[in-house]
Structure to design on (233 residues):
């Protein structure tokens, strides 16, 4: 895909420390984005399952105790959307991933808002009780999530990418949610525009390490979810 030509790493002299947990969709989104930009980094795994996000060391990086977070030479950034915006402004060769143009940039922001305030929270409301509260999946919560899948399908009607004519940070944000939903048995093919975009985006992101960064994490998440279901069966 020609996509790769838009990413020319503006190499830094220092290495960014990326605080990551592979099961987390927002964490995978920001890591994949960082890799797309070719930024040198070292990974620090914060094991959310054993509560490492609440360590005093990590709370100094992110008082909201969530991954992802980065340390860029002593400058700490948290929240996947904010990290991606920062990395784009600071290190991308051009503004295609997060356009400077007010209208194009606002569309990207709207889709990021949709991703982090609606699509991901609705998926989280579905899986958290199964993973941590020992309950069966809720049909009602699945329906709530699917309402936002329908909206995403509408957004993608006659569109190639999530926000406009180019691949942007919104594609990174949303693809990690879709792959996680698929891993916990939501049928993506019910949403034809989403399914077509998903295939396209995976191809576009293959050279950034899509399989190892995103698919592997989504698969691991799916296995954990299924193992919880089996324990309950
Ligand atoms: N809006 C945040 C959400 C991050 C988030 O919720 N991360 C979860 C994992 S998916 C987390 O770190 N949870 C640990 C906690 O809240 O203690 C982002 O996009 O970075």
């Amino acid at each position: 895909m020609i996509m790769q030509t838009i990413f020319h790493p503006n190499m830094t002299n220092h290495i960014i420390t990326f605080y990551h947990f592979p099961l987390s969709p927002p964490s995978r989104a920001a890591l994949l984005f960082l890799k797309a930009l070719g930024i040198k980094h070292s990974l620090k795994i914060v094991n959310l399952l054993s509560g490492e996000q609440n360590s005093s060391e990590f709370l100094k990086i992110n008082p909201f105790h969530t991954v992802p977070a980065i340390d860029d030479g002593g400058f700490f950034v948290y929240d996947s959307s904010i990290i991606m915006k920062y990395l784009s402004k600071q290190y991308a060769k051009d503004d295609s991933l997060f356009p400077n143009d007010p209208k194009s940039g606002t569309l990207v922001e709207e889709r990021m808002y949709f991703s982090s305030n609606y699509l991901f929270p609705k998926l989280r409301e579905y899986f958290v009780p199964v993973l941590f509260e020992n309950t069966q999946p809720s049909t009602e919560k699945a329906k709530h999530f699917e309402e936002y899948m329908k909206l995403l399908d509408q957004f993608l009607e006659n569109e190639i990418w999530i926000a406009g004519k180019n691949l942007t940070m919104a594609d990174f944000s949303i693809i990690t949610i879709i792959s996680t939903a698929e891993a916990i048995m939501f049928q993506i093919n019910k949403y034809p525009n989403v399914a077509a975009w998903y295939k396209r985006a995976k191809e576009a992101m293959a050279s950034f390490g899509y399989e190892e960064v995103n698919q592997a994490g989504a698969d691991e998440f799916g296995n954990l979810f299924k193992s919880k279901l089996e324990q309950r069966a």
Remarks:
- The helical segments are 25-36, 56-61, 80-91, 102-132, 139-155, 169-183, 192-205, 210-232.
- The domain at 102-232 is CATH 1.20.1050.10 (Glutathione S-transferase Yfyf (Class Pi); Chain A, domain 2).
